[in-house]
Amino acid sequence: LVIDRFSCTLPESDNRLVADGLRINWNQSSIRRRQVNAVLINALNIQLAQGRAQPPRVSPQQRISNIARKLRQIRPLSVGRFLPFQRLHVEKLALTGKGAGPLRGRELSLDLDKKKNNLTTRILLPHAQLQLQATTSDSSTMVIQLGKTGQQNPFAWIEFKHHQQEIQARLKVDLVGLSHINPLLTARLPEMSGKLSSSMRLSLRENPHVDGEVRLNGFNLSGTNVKTATMNLHGLVEPTKGIVISGKAALKDMALHQAGLRFGAIHVVLKDGLLLAGQGHLQGRGGISATIQNISNPQLHCNSITLPLVAFSSSLNNSITVRLKAQQPFIVAGLTGSKYTLARMRLIPEQDTTITAAVAPRLSWSISPGRWRIAPDSLKQSNLVLAPEPLSLKLQQFGGTGNRWHIQTTLSCPGVHLQSGKRRSTITDIALRLRGDDSKIFGEGAWTLKPVPGLFTLQFSHNLKNGRGGAVVSTKRPLTFSKDTPLSATVAGWFPPADLTRGELRIKSSIRWPHLRMTGRISLGKGKGFFRDIRFSGLSFSQNLQILPVLRSRKIGTLTIDTLDVGLPIHNFFTEILFKSSGKPLPVLILKNTHASLLGGSIANDYSTIDPQKLRLRTTIRVNGLHLADLLALQQVKGLKVSGSVSGELPIRLDKEGLHVDNGSLHNEQSSGIIEYTPPSDKGLANSPLTSYALKALEEFHYHLLAASANYSPDGALEVKLHLEGKSPKLDTRRPVHLNITTQQNLLSLVKSLRYSDALTDEIDREVQQHFQKK
Predict the structure, then answer these.
(1) Is residue 134 part of a domain?
(2) Residues 406/369, Cβ–Cβ less than 8 Å
(3) Considering 121, 147, 179, which residue would you say is the last residue of a domain?
(4) Torsion of CA 765, 769, 774, 775, to 10 degrees
(5) Number of domains into which the chain is organized
(6) Sequence-distant (≥ 6) Cβ neighbours of residue 770 within 8 angstroms
(7) What is the C-alpha separation between 202 and 27, in angstroms, rounded?
């Protein structure tokens, strides 16, 4: 039988079928079986409509009841009853209409072969070189295979079995082969690899239920690798509730190469899930909890992240709602960086919190306002331990639409305790306010340094579009030191060689990025304290620095000290300080125009350079008009009086060995001076004519020349050569008296060497005292 054209509308639908070149072959035996041998069609066009009008609205429970009823009505297919031919061949098959989906307009061919109780269906897509084959038998088995034309092994395979009141299904997919279906798609699938397999068992009894497992091995997609992934689900159809779902999923050895992340394992548990169908939409609700283990990247490692059981639900308007119960913590455990460790941190909502997300028409989401508590354990870095008290996060706004989002929140912390060995410090009253959106973030904060009065403030901004930003840290109220709250009190257990027991410290620092530039200004006023055995008061310091990219002074700074006690009273000390970049980690320190008042005179230095990398210094200290009477008053030698003053130069050299004085020279500044010495006791002097003669001369010695040379070495050895010329009215001679004294001492400081080199009386006193002791 040959029919040029045949068309009809399929029953209970708006779909139409149009066949051209229809040929039907049969014989007597096939007619007796009410079948034909073959149906051959040159061209077959199936017009698939988008669908009929939606049926009347029914309740979710009615839809669930209908699903359960239809599942129980499923019966095995009988191939012989519903196909009245042994073979069907369609040379050109075309699917048209809105319901054809990705196959619309594609050139296909179709073959159906029925042998006994087996039916084999092949659909060829010549343009895509794909072949779809389905084999069905009355033994309640159907196998569907999808593969490349001409290749024996398919890349996708699925099997259905119907046994009594149960349907079993198995699936195997080689994901590499999915790239072959790209010609059918408007958007190409990404390149992927791996083996996907699953099994499912559907019970058709009174309350139908389904159990399934999905497994993925060796998965790779755009730099994401998963060694194994498994998912197990159990679903139960309850007409009065819906489809109740529970299950669990696990991923092992997952790597995100682009982000540099690896996950040892991810475990997800679904509890009391409920799936409803309403108005063409799937609605769900239930609870999900998850644990992520062994998260790492090149910089850090985390043992686990635990997400608490959260309730979720979906609605008809394509929105999802997640509800977090109060006091249910998110836990991060075993966080380890390259130089730090954090045992555990908990993020706890203090009230029930809602997260909503709408999928259509554009993704929008928001988190309800509320308070969160952040409770971290101690953060350890080498020998430094940072122990914050629980932080309070007040979330005022956080949400977004599409790529746009906004945030407004405040963060506060009563205190953060820092400990390094036996040293401890506390930062208190920490507050941070943060606001911004997807383009820019702004923030401001404040904190104090316990127990010293003062207040630090912070202001910062960051542009998320171009990565530029900056921050300013300053002291809104200066750090104020006192006897009860010295600088060392900021670090308990710290016993530094220097301390401030009075003063006001002001700091202002700014930083800019991404090209890091940091500047700072530091000033100290009214300072009082000590450095080792040296005490000072009236200290003022000011310095304007560039800290990054290199440390240097932006302007010349100054250092002044009203009183400096180094064993000798120094007053009105002043110097200009300049840090100069050296191309090395530490800058060169330059001191200019240094001068101070000392013993009625002054000391000065025009220019000195100190390189911390080399620890070398060469300079000369100028001494001008030091009063010998003032120097003598420090010695408190009984019976000794001296007048006059000295000036000169002390060449200073500093190297790795220590401090040197090379050939320092001092001389009397005035034309003459007088030394008057009357020992408190002359016992034993009568037997020494030389001593008696010298002491007689010193009872009233008028000198017109006093010269001293000094050499000092880092081990404390001081060699002083003294030369005096003058007259003594107490001697029965008019001849001038010359005195040369060479002495070597081991002194603790250069100041003591000055005391010995400047004052002849010191040496005389020492000689006389030793003489009395020997007698």
Answers:
(1) no
(2) no
(3) 121
(4) 110
(5) 2
(6) none
(7) 43
- Locate 604 and state its tokens: 């000065």
Q: Which amino acid is at 479?
A: L
Domain end (from 98, 121, 144): 121
Q: Coil, strand, or helix at residue 604?
A: strand
Any idea what DSSP says for residue 53? P
Residue 98 CB coordination number (10 Å):
11
CA distances from 567 to 649, 651, 754 (A): 20, 20, 11
What is the 8-class DSSP label of residue 61?
H
> For residue range 15-64, what is the model confidence (pLDDT) as tens digits?
888 999 999 998 888 887 778 889 999 998 888 876 555 555 555 555 55
Token pair 């354990």 is found at 377
| Cα-based distances in Å from 697 to 52, 502, 646, 737 | 136, 51, 22, 9
Please give the residue range of the domain that contains residue 109. Answer: 2-121
Closest CA to 562 of 553, 571, 552: 571
The Cα 344–Cα 303 span in angstroms is 10
Q: What are phi and psi of 31, to 5 degrees?
A: -65, -35
Contact 178, 195 (CB under 8 A): no
Buried b or exposed e, range 548-585, using 16+ CB within 10 angstroms: eeebebeeebbbbbbbbebebebeebebebbbeebeee
- In a 10 Å sphere around its CB, with 0-12 CB exposed, 13-18 middle and 19+ buried, how is residue 528 labelled? buried
| Structure token digits, residue 109 | 């061919």
d(CA 640, CA 765): 8
Neighbours of 442 (CB within 10 A): 15
| pLDDT score, position 198 | 94
Residues in the chain: 775
**Whole-number Å distance between alpha carbons of 300 and 429:** 30
The amino acid occupying position 130 is L
DSSP label at residue 105 = T
Report cis status (omega within 30 of 0) of the bond before 11: no
pLDDT of residue 762: 45
**Half-sphere exposure in the Cβ direction for 513 (13 Å, CA):** 11
How many C-beta neighbours within 10 Å does residue 628 have? Answer: 24
Q: How far is Cα 473 from Cα 510, in angstroms, rounded to an integer?
A: 6
Neighbours of 621 (CB within 10 A): 18
Determine whether 127 is exposed, middle or buried from the number of CB atoms within 10 Å of its CB (0-12, 13-18, 19+).
exposed
Contact 646, 628 (CB under 8 A): yes
Confidence (pLDDT) at 133: 87
Task: Read off the tokens for 319.
Answer: 């929105």
Read off the amino acid at residue 611: D
Secondary structure class of 33 (helix, strand, coil)? coil
Residue 292 in domain = no
Cα angle, residue 97 at apex, residues 94 and 100 outer, rounded to 5°: 65
Q: Which helix (H) or strand (E) holds 81?
A: helix 79-82
Question: Which SS3 state, helix, strand or coil, does residue 524 take?
Answer: strand
Say how far apart CA 406 and CA 399 lie, in whole Å.
Answer: 6
Domain membership of residue 275 (yes or no) is no
Q: Are strands 36-47 and 85-96 parallel, antiparallel or unpaired?
A: parallel
Residue type, 243: I
Structure-block tokens of residue 672: 């003459």
358: tokens are 């709408």
Residue (of 133, 174, 136, 183) closest to 156 by Cα position: 174
> Pick from 352, 351, 334: which is nearest to 343 by CA?
334
Provide the total of helices (H) and of strands (E) in the chain, helices listed first: 7, 47
Query: Residue 363 half-sphere exposure, CB side, CA atoms within 13 Å?
Result: 4
Residue closest to 584 by CA, chosen among 608, 612, 556, 607: 612
Low-confidence residues of the chain: pLDDT under 70: 50-82, 99, 117, 128, 138-139, 239-242, 273-285, 315-318, 360-361, 567, 631-632, 634-637, 680-694, 741, 743, 745-775
| Angle, vertex CA 42, rays to CA 97 and CA 23, nearest 5 | 120
Instruction: Answer whether residue 609 is part of any domain.
Output: no
